[in-house]
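Lab meeting, action items carried over

1. Structure of the four-component assembly. Owner: GW. Status: complete.
Input record:
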Amino acid sequence: MTLMRAAVFVEPGRIVLEDKPIPDVGPLDALMRVTTTTICGTDVHILKGEYPVARGLTIGHEPVGVIEKLGSAVTGYREGQRVIAGAITPSGWSNACLCGACSQDGAGTAHGWKPMGGWKFGNTIDGCQAEYVLVPDAMVNLAPVPDALSDEQVLMCPDIMSTGFSGAERAEIRIGDVVAVFAQGPIGLCATAGAKLSGAAVVIAVDRLAGRLQTAAQMGADHVIDASQCDPVEEILRLTGGRGVDVAIEALGTQQTFEACLRVLRPGGTLSSLGVYSTDLHIPLGAFAAGLGDHRIITTLCPGGKERMRRLMSVIESGRIDLGAMVTHRYKLDDIEAAYDLFSHQRDGVLKVAITP
Amino acid sequence: MTLMRAAVFVEPGRIVLEDKPIPDVGPLDALMRVTTTTICGTDVHILKGEYPVARGLTIGHEPVGVIEKLGSAVTGYREGQRVIAGAITPSGWSNACLCGACSQDGAGTAHGWKPMGGWKFGNTIDGCQAEYVLVPDAMVNLAPVPDALSDEQVLMCPDIMSTGFSGAERAEIRIGDVVAVFAQGPIGLCATAGAKLSGAAVVIAVDRLAGRLQTAAQMGADHVIDASQCDPVEEILRLTGGRGVDVAIEALGTQQTFEACLRVLRPGGTLSSLGVYSTDLHIPLGAFAAGLGDHRIITTLCPGGKERMRRLMSVIESGRIDLGAMVTHRYKLDDIEAAYDLFSHQRDGVLKVAITP
Amino acid sequence: MTLMRAAVFVEPGRIVLEDKPIPDVGPLDALMRVTTTTICGTDVHILKGEYPVARGLTIGHEPVGVIEKLGSAVTGYREGQRVIAGAITPSGWSNACLCGACSQDGAGTAHGWKPMGGWKFGNTIDGCQAEYVLVPDAMVNLAPVPDALSDEQVLMCPDIMSTGFSGAERAEIRIGDVVAVFAQGPIGLCATAGAKLSGAAVVIAVDRLAGRLQTAAQMGADHVIDASQCDPVEEILRLTGGRGVDVAIEALGTQQTFEACLRVLRPGGTLSSLGVYSTDLHIPLGAFAAGLGDHRIITTLCPGGKERMRRLMSVIESGRIDLGAMVTHRYKLDDIEAAYDLFSHQRDGVLKVAITP
Amino acid sequence: MTLMRAAVFVEPGRIVLEDKPIPDVGPLDALMRVTTTTICGTDVHILKGEYPVARGLTIGHEPVGVIEKLGSAVTGYREGQRVIAGAITPSGWSNACLCGACSQDGAGTAHGWKPMGGWKFGNTIDGCQAEYVLVPDAMVNLAPVPDALSDEQVLMCPDIMSTGFSGAERAEIRIGDVVAVFAQGPIGLCATAGAKLSGAAVVIAVDRLAGRLQTAAQMGADHVIDASQCDPVEEILRLTGGRGVDVAIEALGTQQTFEACLRVLRPGGTLSSLGVYSTDLHIPLGAFAAGLGDHRIITTLCPGGKERMRRLMSVIESGRIDLGAMVTHRYKLDDIEAAYDLFSHQRDGVLKVAITP
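Predicted assembly:
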């Protein structure tokens, strides 16, 4: 039995590098040799014990790599091919997938779906902060990487870019909309870029860190608001002449940002929520117009699947967006514990960390 | 100056019949002689002081009548014509209207919209529980009543039917959907009918009153659940084999029903909210899948305008729905105080009360 | 090698019953023992040589049956289970499927899709007018049949009902719409039912056969027009007071019906086209408003997949539609040549023929 | 009676400058003093007698100007205010407007809509190639011009930009789409820009004039194809690896470009048609996949109204698009006959001509 190195969850506070067997390949699977991966905010939730996973699980859901071995029923690929897989790995054959809720394809049992079931890598099955990762339903999930693109150029596709863009897409932004994006972490920055790419006339980016606001401006924000210096709700209402925004995107997962989104929304506007919340939410009656504001609140889990990945990579290849600047630090897999330390404490202006086995 | 009888708000607890001048007709207005109107749950909120309006305001927003006088700039109608107007009276010329948020057309000032502004009759201008009512922007709002339909047959169009149906429409119900409707008051009953009319395979109606559940079954509900006898969330999950519903419609305006809607929703499902809430709302983390359930929460204010009214009346005329059974009691305008007394205490199985001046 | 009986295409004019080997089961496949199937208008096109298929191909794409054997990679089913599969059998893993064009999932090669590729049974692979049929991508395509439903009750789901309903669905019919359906063959009848089920206030059914118009009225048509007796365009404009229809559904596949659809459409209306055309089409300038009518022309190929089948069966199970009356004749597989003779000549008021091996 | 100069249609081949009375102002109207206007391709159709209008009609539908006088029922504006009005002037109160077909609001009679009725200026009422123009339904149609924008900067909003952008909007372009735009006249160029603004990863512009292709590249086209040098269908299939495009936009109004759009469409793709056709159209069976390609053909007439104008001007103000380069020539109103001569012969690389009274 051959072994590989993998970052596994041991207990709250401890993700450590261990030796694990390289997994066997089932008929629909593919084994990917990971060449680059990264750490996500959700992984930090796992590290801190805020989001529970099984002890011994390999963490990570953003794989870039090379096909090492294909399952016996997998066609259309060749070993050695450069590929990525989305953070969310739909089966393609579940009822959830077939009725348009691909990201919610989890259980597949007769008794319905589990809300988190759609997210498998590093949640319900071993993830990709390892030398190898087993990709389920490979024909649905493996997306070939164009030769012209480097690993780091596509590293944001599996999760950050797919999630951030979906915040703009699901809100159905129209040409000329005014959009506010609350929080400019990696997902918020991609939401900012996605809003701009969708035709927003004005994108207003909110955060509390000057460095992130600077990056937001580079990604296309027309206005940036430092929430540590002023009340962003008042500032947005001032900027829009009291009209409010057509779309507000929540990209942090807190009561404060969720509520601020509601408060800046024009009647008939849309709150597009991307954040992973860790507490109950509270909707103030006034911010909700007592239920009479023709509002929409839409939550979205990162869309996955190879076609989604193909599209996102085509946007990068076209030069319409450059997410390279989001990789601020680089670590070897052997040093992933140090990477977690840096990332979880948000030190040194870190946005995303590239990890290479 | 000629006088008319009108039900006006005096102070919390008191809506009384008074003499008021028949209003002057501006160039875009029409004066309607009211032949039938009704009392809405919102009027009861006003009566109780829970929703504030100006003292002396005439209440009521569901007018059926005859054109008495047309404004100088109004064309396309004739005096004596039988018409209705929606509860919500869009101007047709506001930016809100022109960007698809007709029900939110209120202020029309440079400083944006007011959430409640779209509702004018009996809220910001005099309403129709009176002998006459002035209809603003008449060319947008007056809908001729087909000869074949009686006053009572179209009495639900201005508010109850338009609101209830919009709960189904805005949820984008698809053929084969499973839909739960929480609360079977007049609006909930119309939501039940609207869900059925939209192609739902299974409609589950929830209420605490046996009489209303019986009416719900007549309006098309496949299953009825008496929430006074069991936990409707558990019962709905049982009925759907644990799958949950595609769409849940809230038609009461309480925390309990709002939360129950979230708890029965399948991942990717839609909560369509029609209720007028009177308290802040609370979203339990689990019921919201921590923001990862691909849910949509959509609130809708009653759509108005003459084209909407034309469509609703065409549905009635086609025989696809019969709302006649919803008029359970009849009063003269002179006895409207007694009608309020009955309706606000929900006595005698009352659903809707027809008021005739 | 075990043999089975199968209806195969030999040459234009000849579909004959032959012995063929029972197919081997690949890892993603399932072998279905066919218990009931039927003949489609498209099969008649094949018979007549109007639509080319390979010689020796087994015809038929509407299977009801029992799982005989499951592929090695197939999970979630058991042998002996009653199932249907859609006429169109998407893979679930193609880029077409994953971008929402499941019915167009055909080739799966790097060089794109073939327009007809999505239809496989009896077109590019052996079909189901046989004792056994091999279902590709079984986990995507096998839909368990509820115990309460008989074979004949679900026999229309794979093609006729799925196609007909999709005509209404893709047109995005709204409550209160006026809809005209041109041609009341099996698909047109299902489009009529689907339009009604979608909330149309008025459905106008057009055909040249009195018997079919009678069935159309039973399926929910409010008006029927015998096109052999009058000009249906004039009649529809008369019925709608010159306004035209919101949606016109084409369910025959001829220039005449296509053009009539355009001519009855209101500005801003939608032509939903289901027919399989066999000639070029001609768009008269006036009927098309010179391109300025805000029209939509939408073509749809029968949606497939197990979730689609589940939904359609749930509609039947709910009692909202009864397609049993569409099976007008019954034949043994051994007599299928006689069935083709009857069906292709549209004798004896035939709508659909049930074939049982 | 005061007179003004106006360009009027006299007979095929002759549009001449004449003296006409300055129009009276009805209660819902506004009189605009025109400061800048332009000539459209449709005006050339009128000049040539290809599109019939009444003799003596003032031509022109793209007004930029100043409010000279407001109708008695018009509120919310002040005389002297800088405004534009869209080429299409919806009433706001017609049933067409109220059911979402604003551009089709024409007749307003009981007997339905006339396809061209939505276009009034220079078609059914006097247009704006004059010193003054009467704007109907002023509150719906007058959009204040931001101080920061010059006349020429907003001159494309009333027609060219609104139409071109709508080609992208109505096609529901998604982030990552591949879009082909056939013909790069002023509307095609705006469609190219609109496609890019909507998130297309790849925009392919087709024309036969090198100068226009150069402008297309400046407006955001990723590839340009000179149709005088190669077969654009073959070239587009080559560029997309045989896959075809997600959206093809027709911006010329000819059989050749319409058919080419169909031929480059992927299964499930959308043809968005903007051109004004002058002949019947022909749909080849193969290009239409015999009706089985899940295609959509959508035609769009220029959206109008003040909210549309506000949005378009906000896009210009945000700096996301610069249409200044499209004004290639400038004339005084007194010289408009010379301007027609230049424009109708497409001399000197003309794109658009600014006309100032």
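2. GW to write a short summary for the group page. Key points so far: The interface with chain A takes residues 26-28, 71-73, 76, 91-93, 95, 97-100, 102, 108, 137, 139-140, 305-308, 310-311 of chain C (CB under 8 Å). The domain at 3-85+121-155+323-356 of chain C is CATH 3.90.180.10 (Quinone Oxidoreductase; Chain A, domain 1).
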